[in-house]
Design goal:
Layout lengths: L2 H6 L3 E5 L4 H13 L4 E5 L5 H11 L4 E5 L6 H8 L3 E3 L5 H10 L2 E3 L1 E2 L2 H9 L4 E4 L2 H4 L1 H9 L6 E4 L8 H5 L7 E3 L5 H6 L2 H12 L5
Parallel strand pairs: 1-2, 1-9, 2-3, 3-4, 4-5, 6-7, 7-8
Bound molecules: 3-phosphoglyceric acid (3PG).
3-phosphoglyceric acid (3PG) binds next to loops.
């Protein structure tokens, strides 16, 4: 699946920080049950790669990627764990080359027109606008859509259930990213039903 299709297949890409690998499968099931199938597991914790593997092996229907990739060697490790896409907060020539070499779908982070053009030059036309709120969010995306209409964005960082609909209505937004679908306290408590309810609300932003 190409990254553009992955983006178009979801309304919200949840940004997951999984501290305990035992939370991975019930958390992913809760999100998938609520209609959120594309999951970004951030490589910010020791448990992250094991969490990716556990979800890939045990949660049918989940489309699993990794986030917070900042080192070239992380792409292959993510692919070996079963991830089908990767998200980075920014892009360097080394990251671009490593993603291409390993063949994983990449959603590179950009914040400015120059960074977006550099990513286009590297062959990527789907990008994460990060950090979206600080970058100007709705106004920035509308402005980028003028000279750079070929880029499909996933704004992430400060996006909420309230701000998502206007972003999703833009022609150059494929999906939005956000951590609000898996609040730390709900994950810690194992409130999977509550997380399914949050996922349902998010999935309804763009009914299939
Ligand atoms: C992140 O990298 O943590 C994401 O940008 C999520 O941002 P959010 O917590 O504002 O949704």
């Amino acid at each position: 699946m190409q990254i553009r299709d992955i983006m178009r297949s979801c309304s919200v890409m949840p940004v997951l920080v999984i501290e305990n690998v035992e939370h991975a499968v019930p958390l992913a099931k809760a999100l998938v049950d609520g209609g959120i199938r594309v999951l970004e597991v951030t490589l910010r914790t020791e448990a992250a790669l094991a969490a990716v593997k556990a979800i890939v092996d045990n949660v049918p229907g989940a489309i699993v990627g990794v986030g917070t990739v900042v080192r070239p060697e992380q792409f292959q490790a993510a692919k070996d764990a079963g991830a089908v896409f990767a998200v980075t907060p920014g892009l360097t020539p080394k990251l671009a080359a490593a993603a291409r070499a390993c063949g994983i779908q990449l959603l590179p982070g950009v914040m400015t027109p120059s960074e977006a053009i550099a990513a286009l030059e590297e062959g990527f036309d789907a990008m994460k606008l990060f950090p979206a709120e600080q970058a100007g969010s709705l106004g920035m995306l509308k402005a980028m859509g003028g000279p750079l209409p070929q880029i499909l964005f996933c704004p992430t960082g400060g996006v909420s259930l309230e701000s998502a609909p206007k972003l999703l209505a833009l022609p150059n937004v494929g999906c939005v990213g956000g951590s609000w679908l898996a609040p730390k306290d709900m994950v810690a408590k194992g409130d999977w039903a509550g997380i399914t309810a949050l996922a349902r609300e998010a999935a309804a932003l763009r009914p299939e």
